[in-house]
Write a structure and sequence with these properties.
Organism: Micromonospora siamensis
Keywords: ATP-binding, Nucleotide-binding, Transport
Helix content: 25-40%
Radius of gyration: 17 Å
CATH superfamily: P-loop containing nucleotide triphosphate hydrolases
CATH class: Alpha Beta
GO molecular function, one term: transmembrane transporter activity
Largest sheet: 7 strands, mixed
Number of helices: 6
Structural class: alpha/beta
Number of domains: 1
Distance between the termini: 11 Å
Protein name: Putative ABC transport system ATP-binding protein
CATH architecture: 3-Layer(aba) Sandwich
Strand content: 25-35%
CATH topology: Rossmann fold
């Protein structure tokens, strides 16, 4: 398993008490598979993604990346883990305005300590994979919303992560572009052999994913059988 959450509980201060965001959540995501996480607003989807990304430390339970438990890691160690093993696609692309599409990716490689020659070659390959090889020299304002999101996805894959975490990638896109982005993430998951978690509120694009789980009041469960064309389960 590339990503494993075991009996994870996360709470936040809430007045005089604590609010439970995740309640004994267990989730296994093998490499080369895409698990979609659905649920209403406030159900715990974003908290699950933040814990999986090691951006938030749970109250209890363990997060394991490629067989390495993250419990007890220092802040610097977690930063290094995210830089080399975890790709994160945020809801908004947040591309750097002054950089071209290919430069957005090259910056990530520089942070990962890769050579400039290797960085450019991989950046071009990834832009080709997301259908933007002919847009490599364009800056964000010259790209459509769907194109910016595809650069965002390619950027997250730049350092060859084994875990890919995707947060609401279709929220700012129309139905057609949203479907294309989810299809792209699915294809890249299989091609790049990442363990991918896709958090989404839009259930209309999930027929091709490997598994769908739902979060309600911080608890994880399999989606109802027959609800989606993909397989279901929560490990």
């Amino acid at each position: 398993m590339s990503l494993n959450l075991t009996d994870v509980t996360l709470t936040y201060p809430d007045g005089a008490g604590r609010l439970t965001a995740l309640d004994h959540v267990t989730l296994d995501v093998p490499r080369g598979t895409l698990t979609a996480v659905v649920g209403p607003s406030g159900s715990g989807k974003s908290s699950l993604l933040a814990v999986a990304a090691t951006l938030v430390t749970p109250d209890a339970g363990t997060v394991t990346i490629d067989g390495t438990p993250t419990t007890g890691m220092s802040r610097a160690e977690l930063t290094g883990l995210r830089r080399h093993r975890i790709g994160i696609v945020f809801q908004q692309p947040n591309l750097l305005p002054a950089l071209t599409a290919v430069e957005q990716l090259q910056v990530m490689a520089h942070l990962g300590g890769r050579s400039a020659a290797h960085a450019r070659s991989r950046a071009i390959d990834l832009l080709h994979a997301v259908g933007l090889a002919d847009q490599a020299g364009r800056r964000p304002h010259q790209l459509s919303g769907g194109q910016r999101q595809r650069v965002n996805i390619a950027r997250a894959l730049m350092n060859e992560p084994t875990v890919l975490l995707v947060d609401e990638p279709t929220s700012a896109l129309d139905h057609e572009r949203g479907a294309a982005v989810v299809d792209l993430i699915t294809r890249l998951t299989h091609r790049q052999a990442t363990a991918t978690v896709l958090v989404t509120h839009d259930r209309t694009h999930l027929t091709a994913v490997d598994r769908v789980v739902q979060v309600h009041d911080g608890r994880l469960s399999a989606a109802a059988p027959g609800t989606y064309a993909g397989g279901v389960g929560c490990g």
